[in-house]
Amino acid sequence: MRIIPFLFIILFFSCKNDTYEHWNTYNGTKAGLKYSSLKQIDTSNVQQLTIAWEYHTGDVDTANHSQIQCNPIMVNDVLYVISPQLKLAALDAATGQQKWVFDPWAAGKKEKNLNNLRGLTYWEDEKDKRLFYTAGPHLYAVDALSGRSAITFGDSGRIDLHNDLGEAAKDMYVITTSPGMIYKDQIIIGSRVSERSDAAPGHIRSYDVHTGKLRWIFHTIPRPGEEEYDKWDNPEVYKHLGGANSWSGFSLDEERGILFAPTGSVSFDFYGGMRQGANLFANSLLALDANTGKRIWHFQHIHHDVWDRDLPAPPVLVTVTHNGKKVDAAAQITKSGYVLLFDRVNGTPLFPIEERAVPTKSELTGEKLWPTQPYPVSPAPFTRQLMKESDLNFLLPDSSFKDVKERWTHYKKDHMYEPPSKQGTVVFPGLDGGAEWGGPAVDPETGILYVNANEMPWVVEIVDLREKPVAKETNLQAGKRLYRNHCMSCHGPEREGGGNYPALLNVQSKYNTEQFIQLVNTGRRMMPGFKRLQEEEKQAIAAFILDLKPMQTLAYKGPQQPVDSFRNLPYAMTGYNKFLSKEGHPAISPPWGTLSAIDLNTGKYVWRDTLGEDPAFKGRGIKTGTENYGAPVVTAGGLLFIAATKDGKMRAFNKRTGQLLWETTLPAAGFATPAIYMVNGKQYVVIACGGGKLDTPSGDSYVAFALK
User: pTM of the predicted model, to two decimals?
Assistant: First the structure.
């Protein structure tokens, strides 16, 4: 009589552990845990790791700082990876030998839309095994065995991401950076859109995995008759503005059929005069019925966002012990450095969240800031949230320190929610975060969350945009005007670049007119495409940026301003500019990159340390940390693996203590999340080594580590 429950216990734990032995889903599981129950590699032998194989994609683009941000997946002993040029490859997971390559541009498509893609999705039934991933504005279905297009899906194996967004969006920029989510026979997708006034709608959509037909759509900017529509001050805004998109991916409670979708801000990111109100469902965590797309609950973590505080990663779904009871929870990290913990069924916060008064005065005409913002009481923030004078970088030479202090004195910086200004506002944590797109890892056995973060200040400076109309413009005059309207916010008023965006000085040595206009049409990586601009507008921009003297003097024949007055904004920002010293060092003192372990059961910190080393200060014995992009992975072997850092290292920490146990130098920086799996009795840890970000050299390889 006692054998049956004993066997039940064995089978239960066997099934439970098996859930985390595979890496056939982005982030390891649909719950987003980034956890592996494999423990062949553990704290006692991790120092013996060596390179098992390295696969080169062969399509690095060093001139344009190509990257690989892909978290690969492994299914049936085959590892699926994405290259810098967005080719999809199948590898023998044990040897790294290539089986096949799918090239989305093979049909001679001239206009490549090269963006950073962080993963892909696998689905199978008794007849088909399919991979879903995006390249440019298309979602592709690829046969997982042959690498050929699954031609029964959509239009001969792909669907256009512009579909179902409305006629006005047909020429707007729409791609994805994160993979979709499989639920039953649906592929659910988000999108990345422009962050300026020309943004496409950020609707969340579900498609049939067999046919590519639309199943359901959730409008993140509500329409008449939909929930929260009446909360918008202007009832016509849904017709004109875009954004509020779920670009960072999803997590899924598959048993309950609940999809968790984090959203970003409504465009334009830094001025809200055209979108007064709280702006639901922007900057929200949405819990949707995965069968129908209907809202179950939501929480808005920023009201009327003018700081680009998108939710950067999907929540992690984990069971915690709260007030003595087991609660199925959703843990959401933010760019501001918060961890928000909710009952995933009804959205009740497990730790108190208070609405507190924030600054409401803005010098920008038409801006109406929201009077309060949510403040979680626990856990404590995992980053600093205000840059004080005592935080100025003491490591700088005297002259640089004085220069930084002088600039800091003139900026607005007294509150985390200080609005953008014409004199410049310090946004800290910076526009990238705080927490980044990699998101946290969570150990489901302990409920401990591990999150890497940046502490880099940025400066947002606003300028007047509307100019007195000129009756007759030359291409040069129009080109300068159009540059200010469409390009300045990324590349700066003097085309000097900033943040993640390159300078546009002397680009005529790199592009002719045809190549430049092609780039304007398609975009590349961080740059959105501007296909919707009329040909005369693109020619005028080319005349200005490429310094085409004969064309500059000709009369401009294009439109003077957007037909849609909602998109004709009075202000723009001067660029995505980090607050740096003359030498390029952060204006703030270390740490610049951190790694924290937080117990979600109690809200208390287990440990916290710096992540990465800046070689400029390493000899001075100071643990600086570095900017980092990617995520950690936690294992049952007591380890935390992470690359992500600017210094190009891969590291393994003791997950219980934070002690560094192993590190190695990668062939290029690993701005990605590792994958962990087992083949033929051997455990592997694989990382994409694409570099290219933070001025690091670009790479084209995937490296697998295993025990000797």
Answer: 0.91
